[in-house]
Amino acid sequence: MTAQKKSFLAGGALVGAANGLFGGGGGMVAVPLLRRAALSDASAHATALAVIFPVCCVSAAIYLFSGFVPVAVLVPVALGVFAGGSVGARLLPRLPAPALRFAFAALMLAAGLWSVF
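^ that's the sequence the OP posted. Answer follows.
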């Protein structure tokens, strides 16, 4: 196995662990790692979503069957996430890289501050 593949495997493990532990935070780890792997900003975001989708399904099933997910909250939030995700996926290719980078950093900062306070 090449060094690059080993680093991708280690990065993937880190992303999966963050995603499972924090309920979707893996993308905030995946995007910077994928950008370091020389992917464009848009490709890094799209690839992060593609690789996180299966682990989100597994984590969600585990949480759901463990009783951590209130179904009354799940349905309306899932509908909103579906709508927002559709809009975001259509918007991603239209945003210039600097705007995408700024928006992502601002979201990470806001999420971090919200978590602390």
